[in-house]
Amino acid sequence: MRNPEELIRESTAPKDFVAVSWNLHKGRTSLGFQGWQAMQRWVQSTHADAYFLQEAMARRMPSPVLASSFGAPLGDPLNDVWHCQATEIARALELEIALGPNVFKSSWRHGNAILSPHPLDLGGRWDISAHRFEKRGLLVTRATFGGYSVTLLCAHLALTRSARLRQMNWIAHWIAKEAPEGPLVLAGDFNDWRNDSVPLFGEHSLQEVATLLGESGRTFPAFSPALALDKMFVRGMQPVEWIQPTQETAWLSDHLPYMARLRVE
Asked: How many whole angstroms separate alpha carbon 118 and alpha carbon 148?
């Protein structure tokens, strides 16, 4: 029979940490149809602990904002500037949110977002654009989960291999300098069909979830996945399960969501 202290430790131990990474494709299906409402319903059904979203889209900005060199005129709320698909999800599900716009134009913009039901400590957005033709960013925040501070990083990397390799090395350098220890999840659209990221981050003690579990991790194209473009790397988190996306998600974006069950070590 277990003593009371063991029972207390068991009752207060954190549950599995469910993480979802998904390129929203600006709210459109692979065929170009509007799929935003169906995407939002699917996200609501997952009850994850962290969502790493890429290409969260916003189409219009208030006209006074366009005239402001700082993104919002005096007296106007910054919410108008940052409002996008990810904020709609956060408000609907009462989630905490961190946002990192990458492409910021007069008529539309999109970027990365991290959502969580757990308290978030915002860390910032870092520009990791490797050239002027593709704006890319690394979004950083920390979630309080089961008494642990879990570093969460969301990335969307370049289409060209040379640019991706530079960005991966920049991210690895940031982790080594700013988050050298403790539980960490790095997820996003890496566009890394060559799997260059697996050995590169492996040198920094980060494990790719699907690879470690012997799963294909293929997420692209969504209707017939052949390439493992999306990745999820962890440290201080034990991969438990790579969760196969449901069939309905094959028609919601050009990428399937990458979903995993993790356990804090």
From this structure: 11
